[in-house]
Each structure stands twice: as C-alpha cells, then as structure tokens.
Task: structure prediction
Amino acid sequence: MAVNFKDINKTVALVGTDAVAEAMRQIDPDVVAAYPITPQTAIVETFAQMVADGKVNTNYVPVESEHSAMSAAIGASSAGARVMTATASQGLALMWELLYIASGLRLPIVMPNVNRALSAPINIHCDHGDSMGARDTGWIQLFSENAQEAYDNTLQAMRIAEHKDILLPVMVLLDGFIISHAIDRLDLVDDDVAKKFVGQYKPEDYMLNASQPLCVGAFDGLYGYFFEFKRQQEEAMRNSVKVIQDVGKEYGAVSGRPYDLFESVGLEDAEYVLIALGSAAGTVRSEVECLREQGLPIGMIKLRVFRPFPAKELAAALAGKKAVAVMDRSDTFAGGMGGPVFIELRSALYEEEKRPLLVNYVYGLGGRDLPVQLVNQAATELGEIAKSGQVKQMVNYLGLKE
Amino acid sequence: MGTSLKELSKKPEILTGGHRMCAGCGAPIAVRQVLMGAPDGVQLVVANPTGCLEVSTTIYPYTSWNSSYIHCAFENAASTLSGAEAAYQSLKKQGKIKDDYRFVAFGGDGGTYDIGFQALSGALERGHRMVYVCYNNEAYMNTGIQRSGATGLGTWTTTSPHGTESFGKTQNRKDMTAIAAAHNIPYVAQASISHWRDLVKKAQKAFAADGPAFINVLAPCHRGWRYPMEQTVELAKLAVQTCIWPLYEVDNGKWNLTTKVSKKKPVEDYLKIQGRYAHLFKGEKHGEVLKRIQENTDKEWEKLLQICGAE
Result:
C-alpha cells in the first residue's frame, strides 16, 4: 500500500535547535540530564519548557556541569531509563572521560552535539573540532546538513543506539549557528508515526530490576577481561554499519526520507569528487551541480556517518576516480597530515589498486564563512589535479586571512 | 525502627564477606553500620566513586554487593547516583517499575571533599532523594596516602611529607559536614565507626529523609595512619573523646550534639599513637604544631557547642 507522506509530515519553519527539541519531545525519554552551553542552549531551554508544559513524561535533571550531565545520563541509563542529553564544544570536552564510560558500559544514550570550535582562542562558532576530538570514544557519530537532517538523525539515533546488536551511544551532530540558529523549512513526521518508529525501550540488564540486581562498572584489572570488552565494542561498531543502513531505510519508508551512510551527486560519471560533511555539503552541492551543468566531470559525496567510518563503502564509491578533495572543518595538528576526514579517507583508500589522487581543504574553523567562491576555488584546483595527475600541495587552508 | 543488637543482627548483609579490603580497615565497618540503618523491604542502589572500596568489592566477574551497584568515575558518584535516582522517579511515576528503591553513595574523602565536591554540591542542591556517605580516612589511601582536603594540620602524607623545611601538611582540613549542612538539605550528620549505635540511628534518619542526606563518617586507615591494625575502632573512639571528630547532626536545620564529651582528652593522646604524627613528637622542633592542633580543636569544639546550644 502506498503511503502518502504528505499526510504524515507536517511542514514547519524551525531553527535547528527547536527541530532537535521536537524530536526529543516525540522520543519522550525517561530522563534528560543536560547543561546549557552556546549554541546548544536553545535545545535545553525548549525542552525544559516542554517538561514544564507537561508535553513529555521526562524527568529533566538540570545538572551543574556537562561532566555531571553525562554522569547522570550514565547513572540513569544503567538504571534502565531511556536517556538523552545535549551539548557543544567545551561541554563535550568536559565530558571526555565519561564518553568512554558511556560506550564502555554499552549504554544507548543519544546526544545531539551542536558543533562549535574549542578554545583557545575562545570562539562560539561552528567547526567540527569538538566532535572530531571525540571520534575514538566509541560513540556512533551522525552528521547533519540542515535542521531536517538533525531532526531525522535524532529519531534514528535512538533506534540505532538501542538495537540489541549495538548498544552504543550515538552523537547527532549539527553545525553551530549555521544549523542551530537558522530558521529552516522542514517536515516533522506525525507524533504517532515517530513514536511507533522509535518504539518502547526494553533494556535486558538494568539496576532497577529487583529480581536481578546489577553491578555496573566493576573493576577489571590486569588478569581480567578488559581487552575482550574493548574488542566486543569494536565488533558492535562494525555491526552498526548495517543497522544504520537498515534504520535509514525503515525511516525512509515511514517518512519519505531514506538515509544511508553517505549520499552523492554525479558519481556515475564524475572524474573527480569533493567530499564534505555538515552544513557545508549544501554549498558544495550547489557549486558541484552548477559546474556539472557547465559540463565538468565533477561529483560530490556528503558523508553522514563518520563513526563507524564507512571505509569499504567509500573506497567502492571512489573506485576509478582520478582525484578526490576532502573538505575538513577541523584540523588534527598532526604536523601536515591534514584534517580527520582526510586522514581516515586516505587510510581507507590505501588498499585500492588504483588510488585516486587526494587533496585536503581545511576550511571554516571558528565559524569562518565558506562562500561558494572558495568551493569553486577548491573544485578548480581539483580539476587541475585530475588533469595533470599531480598534487602540488596535499593540505590546503581555504579562506585564511594570511 | 530500633537499634538493638538483636534487631540489627537480623538485617540482611548488603556488603558480603570475601571482599578484599585490608584487615582492620574502617571503611567496610562504616558501610555495614550505615546499611543496618536502611529500611526493611526496599531495594538498594549503591554507588562508589573510584577508590579502595570500589576496587576491593567489585573485582570482575565478582561483586560483594547484594544489591544493584554502580561505579562510574572518581569525581562523580553523586551525579551518577542522581541520574539513577532520577530514572527511578521517572519510571516509578510512569508505572514502569513497582519496587521501592533507596539510593546510597559511599565515597572516600578524596572523592567527596576534593574531586567529587562539585558533583556532590550539585546533587544536594537539586534535592535528589539519596544518602551520600563519606567514609573519611583523611587522605587518598587507594593511591598510597596522598593529602586531601580532609587531611589535618601537621599530618604526614606522601604529598605533604615532613622534612627540614616542613612539618607535614601546612593547612587545616575543610569542614565538609558544615558545608553539606549549608545546602539546607533535610539531614546532615558527622559520625564515627566507634559509636555504632549513634551511626545506625543517623543512617536511619538519613534514609528516612525526604531529600538528600549527607553523613561524614570517620573510618581510620591503619596503612595510612600508621598504627597497629587492631586499633582501628580505638582510634576512631579517641578522635571523638579528644573532640577532634565531634559527633553531631543537623536535622532539618537543627544542630544537635549527639555524643557529649564530659572530660575532653588532650589531642596528643590521639596523635601520639599514629605514625603519621610521629615527627611532631621528635624533639622540640614541631611542638608548636601540636599546640596549634589543640587550639584549633578547642576553638572548633566551642563553636559547635554554641551552635548546638549545648554546654
């Protein structure tokens, strides 16, 4: 039976933070423990109002720091509750040790993180340095291009996190201000559809089960099983690739908006490809489509899932391409290795017999604008690389004032 | 609920034997006395910050706790447990669980006075219904006797050593019990493992409080304090008798002295049997410090008597 998606979607105009709060309202978590930080603050403000107005059953815990936000989330999730929190930047950094504990304890906590630069110098605007720093903490990371995707990703994140083969926390990433504070047109699915899609949370092992008390966070020393726990965590991360794809398809079936690990433009005939994630993907797409109309053999990939890193799938998608440019909104300070997406893609392509030439563009740190002219500059240089077969400068900084 | 030995002997053991705390350690004594004050017929969730108690009672795949238990990190027992309590309130209200639960944290002084201070203050201010117990042995014992905010003036520790230029810790301890009381929570108490009936009564009140409760229990550590292990309870008693560790409660804002000390013993009686103060008794060099410890103790005791309206 064909679904009329117009009936189940309501078109609204919302800023990104309110779009995320709407998803949280529909999920109706048992506990939300959160602390305000720019540019995430509006999420907790809007959600606190929803609690105050009785629109959710959530017990909202207004903690005194992000460290306590994640600690309380861990305590609540271990107790058997469905739990969410939200943060940004320094807040995520303050949670750092607990990010590992949440994933190590296999707790399905969902956390929107509004991407913002890390100090110093202090800067409240967008880059991906905060969540990229947390890329090895064992959290699944889903990037969003706009408010629609931030909303859709949040609903899907709960399903992915709570899947019995996964049980890993999920970060939903949206660009600070560019997405969080800009009014965007988006479609919300019906409450009933959202609630049915997300489903009820039924934990197997939890502390508030009187018939089977649970010891959470036991000490595991030199002769214990630490290594095995970590190996299993990696296995769960590998398993999550398929679950993320399945959930993305299922979400498409109920909303009309299917999701995958990444999406692309013109890969079938492109000779060179730009890769971007987050809000910049919109600018890149616009320019790539424009250049394709002019007859240039260019394509693009918008990466949605950064953890797990879809190495195999990206390598397959880029097979036979002459050149690839990776756009990174953060740096690794590795001394010339480039940004994190670049490093990982470069590693993913190593086994390929015919590797495309690779070039990295670090852009937009601290909220520096990415006008279409800069994308055009990168695309033009990439075209020259594809033509000449030579990369003059592997790591480039786009839009510096220097 | 009474505190007769006959009644208390029938209480189920939540912390079982077979854990790996040192023989003669004050901490498990404190835990068992506090848990004797837990009401009958409720389930418990116990939380520990990182510390001796945690590493010695939950060695995977074993646990010494006959209850649900959580350890998260060092500085966040209070915030972690506040999350568990929030989950309970939410799930109970929604009818998703039926059993009654109580929440109790046992943190050392490092995890309470120092690194866990902010999380504890936040949890007390938010009003979670939980009992936070500090088993106070006045230093970081799990990592080998480093000074904490609970370590007293003149004390030797490995990070406040005495030497030609130092008499040990140069600062006074902070008054954590009074700080907890300043949160205006329903129940706060200072207790000692030597006065078990007093402690069990305080635990009963703490568990009965409709909100957060804080109990600061002196629990000597013979490894860190340097005394023969069989004297743990004796040391705790001397701390009370010298008024270095007075026993009192703040019950809904009312300060009560719970153990009167009619004939105060000199602090030297308590200090001289501990190796961590041995340097204060060698020669004349540090005699001044002993005097200051006595003066501080007298001053604090007088202040407490005044607040409690006792004589």
About this structure: Residues 331 and 339 of chain A are 4 Å apart (CA to CA). Residues 5-255 of chain A form a domain with the Rossmann fold fold (CATH 3.40.50.970). Chain A has two domains: 5-255, 262-398.
